[in-house]
Design goal:
mainly alpha, about 0% strand, elongated, transmembrane helix, ABC_transporter_C-like
Length: about 60
């Protein structure tokens, strides 16, 4: 659940960025959009990474 909630802003930001790419370039705001993208991906990884690690740990323990 946390994964899907934190992944949604990534998809929406990406879609908005692609649709407004010419405007972003015209006003030279690439860095701002890149920074926002990094922040949203980091927030998603904070929820996904522990799940991946615990899943791998459990798989190793069950071998």
């Amino acid at each position: 659940r946390l994964d899907s909630v934190s992944r949604s802003p990534i998809y929406s930001h990406f879609g908005e960025t692609v649709s407004g790419l010419s405007v972003i370039r015209a006003y030279n705001h690439q860095e701002r959009f890149l920074k926002h993208n990094e922040i949203t991906v980091d927030e998603n990884l904070k929820t996904v990474y522990p799940w991946i690690v615990s899943n791998r740990w459990l798989a190793i323990r069950l071998e």
